[in-house]
Amino acid sequence: MPSTVLILGAAGRIGHAVAHAFADAGWTVRAQSRKPLPVGLAARPQIQAMRCDALDAKATAAAAQGADVVVNALNPPYTEWERLAMPLTDAAIAAASSTGALLMLPGSVYNFGRELPPLLTPATPERGDVPKARMRIEIEARMAAAPGLDSVVVRSGDFFGGTERGSWLDLVLTTRLKAGRFVYPGDPALIHPWAYVPDLAHAFVRVAEQRDRLQGHHRFHFAGHAVTGEQMREAVEAVAGRPLRTVGMPWGLIRLGSPLVPMWREVVRMRHLWQRPHQLDDATLRSLIGTLPHTPLKQAVAQARRDLQPAADQSAAASFSANARA
Q1: Alpha-carbon dihedral angle through residues 124, 128, 134, 140, given to the nearest 10 degrees
Q2: pLDDT tens digits, residue range 216-266?
Q3: Nearest to 304 by CA among 180, 123, 177, 174
Q4: CA 182 vs CA 170, 178, 189, 253, 270: distances in Å
Q5: 92 phi, psi to nearest 5 deg
Q6: 19-36 tens-digit pLDDT
Q7: What percentage of the chain reaches a pLDDT higher than 70?
Q8: Are 2 and 20 in contact (CB under 8 A)?
Q9: Chain centroid, CA 255 distance in Å
Q10: pLDDT digits (tens, 9 = 90+) for 176-186
């Protein structure tokens, strides 16, 4: 049967990719955004633009009417979580509840606090010992407690890929390639989880297709790419076509400036994610949807770099992508 999904925050990194993935699977997509949709979304006939503020309860309820699934891809600026995270959560819950839709949320590993263990399962105890951990725990608790609401959290590691800038890959790791350097925020020998956004988006679709089996609140983990910093450097080297030397981030300077620069303050608070090895166990997700979407790392990095390059660089990026696949 034809299905309809409302994507809240469709112009953002995750929302953009999820909208494309649902449209590719034949769903009717309602794409909510305060600003005009990116050209690639606006041009697709299956995607209907819903231009409104997500905090406008009347508008979001109207957009949700008849939807089978609501995806909360709303992501406030990193420095604005304390002000906006809970109101946006409540707006998404209200929209899904108004029409009886399944509510889906891309989750993070923040919930496990400063001392997160090496292997994270849906049953791993949560620790709200940093502000963003407490907020993430509260967001999911509100979803679980909403009367009559069916909801799903799909948790993953750091995002990369897609057409929107803002990931560690493009804002840090690859910023000094011209100088032959690969910038890494932690110990390059430790395992760190990454989620290639197009793969995660297609996993969302496949979970949504099982919505009749998802009464109540559920949490799943998307393992993605659990790799060391050295393995990530090798993938970036394959794309760059040259050897790279790993260098660290200037954490001392960032910490020193954090009282004056709000973004630096928030990054320092989450530094523990680069100091402790961790990865996600995806057994429960695989038991629901089978084999997970998984683009090989070198190919995913190549495509992520190509998607962010201007048109003049596309031919070179295509060559990089071919080398990575080889």
Answers
A1: 20
A2: 999 999 999 999 999 999 999 999 999 999 999 999 999 999 999 999 999
A3: 174
A4: 11, 10, 14, 19, 21
A5: -65, -40
A6: 999 999 999 999 999 999
A7: 94
A8: no
A9: 26
A10: 999 999 999 99
Angle between helices 81-99 and 57-64 (to 10 degrees): 40
CA distance 36 to 241: 37
From the CB of residue 10, how many other CB atoms can be counted at a distance below 10 Å? Answer: 27
Q: Which amino acid does the sequence have at 69?
A: V
CB 153 within 8 A of CB 219: yes
Distance CA 125, CA 157 (A): 17
Question: Hey, what domains does the chain have and what are their CATH numbers?
Answer: 4-163+193-227+277-295 (3.40.50.720)
Q: Do residues 11 and 19 touch, judged by C-beta distance below 8 A? A: no
Angle at 247 between CA 163 and CA 155, to 5 degrees: 45
Residue 92 has pLDDT above 60, yes or no: yes
Helix count (H) and strand count (E) of the chain? 13, 14
Cα separation, 66 vs 48, whole angstroms: 14
Higher per-residue confidence, 313 vs 100: 100
CA atoms within 13 A on the CB side of 142: 19
Token pair belonging to 155: 């948790």
Query: What's the whole-model pTM score?
Result: 0.92
